[in-house]
Automatic annotation (TrEMBL):
The keyword Zinc does not apply. This is Torsin-1A-interacting protein 1/2 AAA+ activator domain-containing protein. It is found in: Endomembrane system; Nucleus envelope. The lineage of its organism: Eukaryota, Metazoa, Chordata, Craniata, Vertebrata. Residues 55-277 form the Torsin-1A-interacting protein 1/2 AAA+ activator domain. One of its GO terms (biological process) is membrane organization. PANTHER family: LAMINA-ASSOCIATED POLYPEPTIDE 1B ISOFORM 1-RELATED, TORSIN-1A-INTERACTING PROTEIN. One of its GO terms (molecular function) is ATPase activator activity. Residues 9-20 have a biased composition (Basic and acidic residues). InterPro entries: LAP1C-like_C_sf, TOIP1/2, TOIP1/2_C. It comes from Leptobrachium leishanense (Leishan spiny toad). The chain crosses the membrane at residues 28-49. Keywords: Glycoprotein, Membrane, Nucleus, Phosphoprotein, Transmembrane, Transmembrane helix. It is a single-pass membrane protein. GO terms for cellular component: membrane; nuclear envelope.
Amino acid sequence: MKYYQGLSERGENQENEQSRPNKTTQMLCLLLGTLLIASFIAVIGVIFVSELKQKHGESVNLNAFQAQVGELQSAFPSQNEILWKRSQRILERHLNNSQPKEPAILLLTAATDAEETLLCLSRRLARAYAISRKGSYTVISGTQRTFDDGKEAKMFIDETLSRGFEASAKAAVLHRLESLPPGSILILYKYCDHENAAYKNVALLITVLLPDETLDPNMDLKELEEKVRDFLKDKFIGSNPDENISHSDMDMDKLSGVWSRIAHVVLPVRPESNNQEGCKDVE
């Protein structure tokens, strides 16, 4: 009897010993499953919060831009309504896109009576866009620096824009395009080539000062675009390209390629009596 009792106890001990690993395995599986579920929930939560912040941030940025444009309209009361409508629509559309496929590009032009206003307004507009993205802006002026040749100017523009965009700049002004050496503007292929542009989440404002004393107030945008195009053609190529400009620097095909990338929107800037007042606070 004791013999059978011993066998029975021994069997129960063996069953208990065999069940312990099973219970341990079950506990480990349960713990692992819990950790996986918790991790999954955490990841979903991070993604949700990130998207929520992004949407909120875009709304705040757009409101900031609209407020800035409102201030600009008050500071520059002589400007044509088409300037504000077209520029605001293009820049707002760009701001509304969290992953734009190409940069926002505006070409502003003026006659000599609005020379100061052209620089002032383009800087203020670039600043408004940059503020909406919590960034800074860069200005490159074709009249403030003398270059030995187009290659030097091209390198300077490239280094200035890339350094700015890699840092905190969200907008740039390329002022007085017509004053730059012809070959230098080919760098705009890099920054304005639609979906192939090096930086897409930025705005680039290009200005051209026409030789006219004043712009015809009745000139429509199509006529203005053609006027600027013809002026740049004469400036960079001339009536006889072989006289003064090396064909390797600029020719009609190259200029047409640049023009097609920067002339989506050509807008007129009118003179302001208080333009100095409007730019006194621009950093």
